[in-house]
Amino acid sequence: MPVENATHTENLLQTLRDALDGGTMRHVRGMLNSMHPAEVASLLESLPPARRAVVWELIGPDDEGEVLLNVNDEVRSGLIDNMEVEELVAAADGLEVDDLADLIISLPEAVTQRVLQAMEEADRQRLQTVLAFDEDSAGGLMNTDTITVRPDVTVEVVLRYLRMHGEVPDGTDTLFVVDRFGRLIGSAYLSRLLTADPESTIAALMLTDVPDIPADMPATEVAKLFENHDLYSAAVVDEGRQLLGRITVDDVVDVIRDEAEHTVMSMAGLDEEFDMFSPVFTSARRRAIWLAVNLATAFVAARVVGVFEATIEQVVALAVLMPVVASMGGIAGSQTLTIIIRGVALGQVGGSNARWLMNRELAVAAINGVVWAVVIALIVVLWFQSWMLGAVIGAAIVINLLAAALAGVVIPLSMKRLGIDPALAGSVVLTTVTDVVGFTAFLGLGALLLV
Fold first, then answer.
1. Of the candidates 76, 80, 102, which has an alpha carbon nearest to the alpha carbon of residue 89?
2. Percentage of the residues of the chain whose pLDDT score is greater than 70
3. What is the SS3 assignment for 106?
């Protein structure tokens, strides 16, 4: 599916480029009007700024709000900066409350006030309820548009009410059962109501074992809850179990996507909201920060090598073989680091099983270390005709792989405890550890046994 989606987007981009190059704006406008706002957002993110501005002018006013919701923060900021106040107010009009809450934090203050003034009092209160919570929490994700019923009413009464109501909120698959104080009691699936005896009460049909979600639960934990319980929607409640709203699976999919992008981009020290077509100097400044960090750690490794300068001058083969030791440690450490970071992100790794995982990774490193130490030592013996040099590099490989495994477990767990994102800085620290340990072991043994 991802390959198909990538091919589809690439084909759309090519068609769009051809139309823009040919000056056939009517064809481009027709293409955009036939696409889903999320597809339009993806296309905008795939265009350089000049063409992005041209395409944005061709998007219909009714779709601008939805498109702004789906582009990343940096692209959204650029588009908003070039929009008039009236245009922004119109774009915000008609959005669902939970979607508007995501957009309104990006709008200028003057526009925000205009949007709030144009809203009905009930919608304004619902919006303020959502905005009261952190955007990365269940309360920030929820939609306050819910349908509630009492447990003592019959199915016939509920269905008659729904028909009189005329419509239900998008994505509604569940009615929430509350007591007379608005406290959540259970959930009643619409699919069960449609086939139930009309005289049955909601109390007889409702489920009480469907998990509800505390409003302050982190968004990533919400996603895990949906995954573990195969939920399509879930109620959001406060500490007193007062029903506040609901979260639907489409909101959770966005969380999962954002988390995946965050992990991938953090590995390179970048933000998931990064615009690949941002100005050259902006991109250079962001990347320079982590290049500077890497440079500092590289000098630490270089200093270790400098300590053994005299040894390297006497045994030149050591300089030739140093990258092998560092590279093997780096790869082995990255494998462990990736596994642990994934486990931490999924909530599968913690204090209760960290020691067991560390012992396991050390055992794996010991086996791989011995196997590859023998292979590399034999190659070195054949290359340099020195059994002692082969033994030195073999021992250094084993030591570095064990150190890499230990670092791959300890670094992300320690960073998590300190409140640092291990995906953001883990690889930099790991590289320093494997380089320093690898060079120290290899050159230190070389100095003791070869000089």
1. 80
2. 86
3. coil
Q: Which residues of 140-169 are buried (b: 16+ CB within 10 A; e: fewer)?
A: bbbbbbbbebebeebbeebeeebeeeeeee
46 class by beta-carbon count within 10 Å (0-12 exposed, 13-18 middle, 19+ buried): middle
Task: With beta carbons less than 8 A apart as the criterion, state whether 175 and 159 touch.
Answer: no
What residues have CB less than 8 Å from 373, skipping those under 6 apart? Answer: 393, 394, 395, 397, 398
Residues 348-392: pLDDT tens digits?
787 778 888 899 999 999 999 999 999 999 999 999 888 999 999
What does the alpha-carbon distance between residue 142 and residue 196 come to, in Å, rounded to a whole number? Answer: 29
Structure tokens, 289: 């920060």
The SS3 of residue 212 is coil
Whole-angstrom Cα Rg for the chain = 29
Which alpha helices (DSSP H) does 48-120 contain, by range? 49-58, 61-70, 73-81, 85-92, 97-104, 109-118
Q: Which residues are CB-contacts of 170 (< 8 A; sequence separation ≥ 6)?
A: 96
- CA–CA distance, 27 with 445 (Å, rounded to integer): 70
H or E element, residue 278: none
